[in-house]
Design a protein that fits this description.
alpha/beta, seven-stranded mixed beta sheet, four-stranded mixed beta sheet, 11 strands, 34% helix, 13% strand, globular
C-alpha cells in the first residue's frame, strides 16, 4: 500500500488535516467556521448578473464550500480542477455520460459494474450510441477501446471487487482519443485519486463512504478539462439534478471525519476478510487488501487504502438468508460505506451476475473484535 499519511502539496497537508479543513471559507470574526446551509431559490440581483450567485438551480454557497472540499481531497495541490455536486451518484454518472456522448459515438463500460449501468446502456443505445462492455479484471477493457469516445472505469468494481490499472487504461484510451472517467465511489478520495492516475473525470456517489452516515443522497464529478466540465455543468442545469442545501451541508460536515472513519473501517474490513478467509468452508472471499486476493498487486500500486467492502459467497440462497438473519451487529440493507455495518444477498436485486448466495458486506465502525465475532457466530449458526 502506498504511503497515505502525508503528501508533498504543502505544509500541514496530511490527509486528516485536509479532511477537517477542506472547503472552509476564510475566517470572519463572529461568523461560524462552517456556515450553515443557504436556503435560497433566488438572490438579490440588481443590474447585470455578474456575481457568482443568481438562481438556486445554478449555484449555491453551500455547494461551493462542499465542491471546494471534495476537490481538495480528490486532487490536492492541483490547479485547474473543477468539482460539481449532484443530487445522487447516478445523477453525477449520467451528467458525464450524456454531456460527452453524441449519436454515433462509442462508449466502453464495465460488464461487472454497478447494477444501474445496464439501464444506462439501454438509454444510450436508444440515442444511437454504441455500448461495448468488458470485465474490470485483467484490464480487459483495453481489448474494446478502438474508436471509443469515452471509457468508463469502475475500480474496485461493485460488487465483485476486481481492480484494473487506471494509469494503463487511461494512457491507452488517450492514445486512441478517448476520454476517461473513473467511478471512485468504493475507494473514496482517500483510497485513490483517479485524476493523478491520468483520468479526465473522477465520479462518485457521495451517498456512500464519503458522507458515511446513511442519511444523505449525493453525487459529484471532478475534472481537469474546462470544456468538458462546462458541458457537465450545462447538463446539470438542463436536468436540474442538484443537491439540496441541507444535504450539501451535511455532506461537508461529514467530510471532516472521513479519514477517521475510513481508517477504522478499512482496518476492520481487513480483519473481517482475514477471518472469512480462514473459515473452514471455501467462501471465495474478495478484498483488495488481502495479500492473497487477485487484485492485491495492482491495488497496492494505485490505492492508498483498500475500501470497506468485503464480498464472499455462501453455498445457497437459503444459507445466505440464514446468515443475514443471524447477524446481530449488521443491518440487512443495501448501499455501503456507513458507520453501521450492513450486508445483503446481492442477487436479490437481479442486476448483478453473482451467485445466489453472494454477500456484499459493508464494514462499519464497530469494534473489530465484536464485528468479527458476530460474523463468525452467524456463519456457524447458519450452517445447520
Amino acid at each position: 500500500m502506498s504511503d497515505s499519511a502525508t503528501d508533498k502539496s504543502g505544509p500541514g497537508t496530511g490527509e486528516g488535516t485536509r479532511a477537517v479543513r477542506a472547503g472552509l471559507p476564510e475566517p470572519v470574526k463572529y461568523e461560524p467556521t462552517l456556515p450553515g446551509p443557504v436556503f435560497a431559490a433566488h438572490y438579490h440581483l440588481p443590474g447585470d448578473p455578474t456575481g457568482p450567485y443568481n438562481y438556486g438551480r445554478d449555484e449555491n454557497p453551500t455547494w461551493t464550500h462542499l465542491e471546494r472540499a471534495i476537490g481538495e481531497l480528490e486532487a490536492p495541490g492541483q490547479d485547474g480542477i473543477e468539482t460539481l455536486v449532484f443530487a445522487s451518484g447516478m445523477a453525477a454518472i449520467s451528467s458525464v455520460v450524456f454531456s460527452q456522448l453524441r449519436s454515433g459515438d462509442t462508449v466502453v463500460l464495465p460488464s461487472d459494474g454497478y447494477q444501474a449501468l445496464p439501464l444506462l446502456r439501454t438509454q444510450l443505445e436508444s440515442y444511437g450510441i454504441e455500448v461495448r462492455t468488458a470485465p474490470t479484471g485483467g484490464d480487459a477493457q483495453l481489448d474494446v477501446l478502438d474508436g471509443a469516445r469515452l471509457l468508463w472505469i469502475e475500480t474496485p468494481s461493485n460488487p465483485g471487487l476486481d481492480v484494473c490499472d487506471i494509469r494503463r487504461l487511461a494512457e491507452a484510451a488517450h492514445a486512441r482519443g478517448a476520454l476517461v472517467a473513473v467511478d471512485n465511489t468504493l475507494a473514496t478520495p482517500l483510497g485513490q485519486r483517479p485524476l493523478e492516475l491520468g483520468a479526465d473525470f473522477s465520479v462518485a456517489s457521495g451517498t456512500k463512504q464519503l458522507t458515511g452516515h446513511g442519511d444523505v443522497l449525493l453525487g459529484y464529478v471532478v475534472g481537469r478539462d474546462a470544456e468538458a466540465m462546462a458541458a457537465v455543468r450545462r447538463w446539470r442545469k438542463i436536468v436540474g439534478a442538484i443537491p439540496g442545501p441541507m444535504e450539501a451541508w451535511l455532506a461537508h460536515r461529514s467530510v471532516a471525519t472521513l479519514q477517521l472513519r475510513v481508517d477504522r473501517q478499512n482496518a476492520t474490513a481487513l480483519a473481517v476478510a482475514e477471518a472469512l478467509r480462514d473459515w473452514p468452508e471455501e467462501l471465495g472471499v474478495r478484498y483488495p487488501g488481502l495479500m492473497s486476493d487477485p487484485s492485491y498487486k495492482i491495488a497496492s500500486q494505485q490505492m492508498h487504502r483498500y475500501g470497506c467492502v468485503v464480498s464472499f459467497s455462501l453455498p445457497t440462497r437459503a444459507r445466505a438468508d440464514r446468515f443475514l438473519d443471524a447477524l446481530r451487529l449488521v443491518d440487512d440493507a443495501t448501499s455501503f460505506g456507513g458507520v453501521r455495518s450492513t450486508a445483503e444477498r446481492r442477487g436479490r436485486w437481479g442486476g448483478d451476475a453473482v451467485p445466489e448466495g453472494f454477500i456484499r458486506f459493508s464494514v462499519g465502525a464497530e469494534d473489530p473484535e465484536d464485528l468479527v465475532a458476530d460474523v463468525l457466530r452467524a456463519l456457524d449458526e447458519s450452517a445447520g
